[in-house]
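Priority: medium. Attachment 1 of 2:
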């Protein structure tokens, strides 16, 4: 049989297993430690499953009221609310004033994908992405695939073996103005009040758009509120930003692709992973309008509640997708798979004549 030409010149991919892990496994030392692994393990080296996850799985199995029906387009409302309260505080004024909201999205990379897609389409002046972290290579690839120019910076102090706030501020002074700034694990940096003030002043003066990544809230300082307190500083000063948050490390549910992505008036994107019965699908329906506010945009999203709810034309809805979109050269917009929504095979994000509006058809 003649080989397929499309695969003839494709090189064999390298094994995904890192060289450090391979060396570790080959080492027969009784006191060896592997510090580069990003998951929680028991002292015996076995996968760790938290007690609350075990208990929840038993409750799910015994609860006859649970089902596998479609979630509302924006996701499970109670879960989104809980996730936002976790980030901004249960009595957050931003939540009370409805300046913050959430949307289900699949995985941490899904949140970056959706945020990058939004910025690429509606903020074409933002072309440069600066990443402050050496721990999230995947998000850099996502932005690069979207056509952004990506620069990576390290704020690690090799002498004191910690993240250095002084290096962080120095790096911030040298990154291009008008950039997207991806900040990972910022809670590892112990900023003083003066350093926080200087950092925010630089971000504001250089019109930098922050994109925060919180991969394991509470595991840095041991306090959930302390690890996210800096977000409240940014909100109180009127900053607009995206934020991606994952709870997979907190609960040890790495293979559970359940998450939320959030949009707020300050355009915060929040991504959380949690064990739900309902898998997040690529559902798109109705019409979505996102009116831009200031330099980053004000996003109004009316979340549908209940199963089988049909959006009426003109109602604002949130667009969700758990995979990269495809752009066809013969289309004027970005094509999205709808994941088998009855009566709807595909949808398009079309750039309208008015640049401050987003319509979904």
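Attachment 2 of 2:
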């Amino acid at each position: 049989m003649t080989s397929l030409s499309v695969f003839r010149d494709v090189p064999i991919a390298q094994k995904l297993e890192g060289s450090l892990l391979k060396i570790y496994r080959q080492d027969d030392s009784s006191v060896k430690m592997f510090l580069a692994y990003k998951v929680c393990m028991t002292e015996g080296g076995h996968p760790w499953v938290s007690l609350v996850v075990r208990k929840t799985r038993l409750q799910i199995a015994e609860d006859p009221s649970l089902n596998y029906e479609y979630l509302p387009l924006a996701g499970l409302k109670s879960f989104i609310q809980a996730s936002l309260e976790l980030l901004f505080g249960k009595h957050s004024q931003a939540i009370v004033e409805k300046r913050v909201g959430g949307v289900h999205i699949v995985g941490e990379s899904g949140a970056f994908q959706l945020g990058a897609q939004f910025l690429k389409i509606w903020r074409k002046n933002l072309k440069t992405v600066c990443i402050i972290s050496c721990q999230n290579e995947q998000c850099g690839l996502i932005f690069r695939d979207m056509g952004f120019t990506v620069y990576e910076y390290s704020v690690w102090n090799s002498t004191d073996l910690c993240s250095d706030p002084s290096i962080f501020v120095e790096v911030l002074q040298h990154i291009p103005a008008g950039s997207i700034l991806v900040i990972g694990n910022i809670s590892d940096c112990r900023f003083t009040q003066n350093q926080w003030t200087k950092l925010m002043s630089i971000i504001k003066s250089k019109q930098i758009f922050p994109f925060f990544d919180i991969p394991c809230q509470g595991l840095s300082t041991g306090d959930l509120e302390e690890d996210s307190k800096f977000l409240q500083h940014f909100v109180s000063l009127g900053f607009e930003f995206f934020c991606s948050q994952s709870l997979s490390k907190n609960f040890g549910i790495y293979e559970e692709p359940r998450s939320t992505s959030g949009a707020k008036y300050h355009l915060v994107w929040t991504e959380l992973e949690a064990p739900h019965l309902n898998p997040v699908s690529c559902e798109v329906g109705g019409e979505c309008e996102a009116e831009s506010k200031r330099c980053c945009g004000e996003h109004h999203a009316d979340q549908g509640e209940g199963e089988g709810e049909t959006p009426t034309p003109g109602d604002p809805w949130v667009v969700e997708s758990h995979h990269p979109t495809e752009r066809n050269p013969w289309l004027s917009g970005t094509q999205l798979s709808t994941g088998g929504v009855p009566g709807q095979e595909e949808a398009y994000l079309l750039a309208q004549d008015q640049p401050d509006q987003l319509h979904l058809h």
